[in-house]
Design a protein that fits this description.
12% strand, 5 strands
């Protein structure tokens, strides 16, 4: 089952590792740059306001607004309308992240990603169907997920990021040509250098994004009657699909006392 999972994701992710990250100066000052086409301004402001309605959203927005180095660009595209992505990373000569771009789809207030890698965002689906939340909450949750990516990469050494990008295609070629044998000594050695195989590296980043999405929802639904049901749904999904990463979600669930721990006993 694990090999099949790796195979499917290798086929999907191979192009993603020819990625966007290099050393180059961007600006002497950091901050958030919102590059939003006029036709998307109204919906974007609604999504942003929802994100900023929480303490964690305001804290993270403020952190990047006043960042001394990092320029965080936020933009919207009609491509991949229900998705979002973070990339275009750049570092300075000291190895510090100085640029990243969050690209939101023009309809991120619609569409729920797979429960396997997105247990937090996916958990919202029945609550919107029951009219307990709106698509604006979903959009803000996706924004929180992307902020999680920025924070993860900012804490990742530039050399490791580039090494992973360099070695992932090599790993994938060997994996696809050796009968999908993950125990191949060549693959074992590559995984050790990368800090995991390409799928493990990718899913670790996605689950950090989901952990930040959960932080946002922890604040957003704190006073809602359904908060225990929501966190219970997240818990079941994490236990089934992300057992190795359960602790990062459990800590968030328990971080504000019994009201959150009700679903994570």
């Amino acid at each position: 089952m694990r090999t099949i999972k790796i195979l499917c994701l290798v086929l999907l992710l191979t192009p993603l590792y020819a990625v966007n990250g290099h050393a180059a100066p961007v600006s002497d000052n950091g901050g958030i740059r919102e590059v939003i086409d006029k036709k998307y301004e109204k919906r974007y402001q609604e999504w942003k306001n929802e994100f900023l309605s929480t303490e964690i959203g305001r804290a993270q927005w403020d952190m990047y607004t006043h960042h001394p180095r990092l320029v965080l660009t936020i933009t919207i595209t009609g491509s991949n309308p229900q998705g979002a992505a973070t990339g275009k990373y750049k570092w300075n000569n000291s190895g510090e992240l100085i640029a990243a771009t969050i690209t939101l789809g023009s309809q991120v207030d619609h569409g729920y990603p797979s429960v396997v890698y997105y247990p937090v965002m996916n958990a919202l689906q029945p609550f919107e169907s029951a009219s307990l939340i709106t698509g604006t909450v979903l959009a803000a949750t996706k924004i929180a997920h992307e902020f999680g990516h920025v924070m993860k990469i900012a804490g990742t050494p530039e050399s490791l990021y580039h090494l992973q990008a360099q070695l992932a295609p090599v790993y994938n070629r060997i994996f696809l040509s050796n009968g999908y044998n993950t125990k191949d000594p060549r693959l074992v050695e590559l995984a050790q250098k990368m800090g995991g195989n390409p799928v493990e590296v990718w899913e670790d980043r996605e689950y950090w994004g989901e952990a930040n999405a959960m932080l946002f929802l922890r604040d957003r639904v704190a006073k809602e009657k359904f908060h225990c049901r929501l966190f219970g749904k997240i818990k079941r999904a994490v236990e089934e699909y992300a057992k190795n990463y359960e602790e990062r979600f459990a800590e968030i669930a328990k971080s504000q006392g019994a009201i959150y721990a009700c679903s994570w006993r």
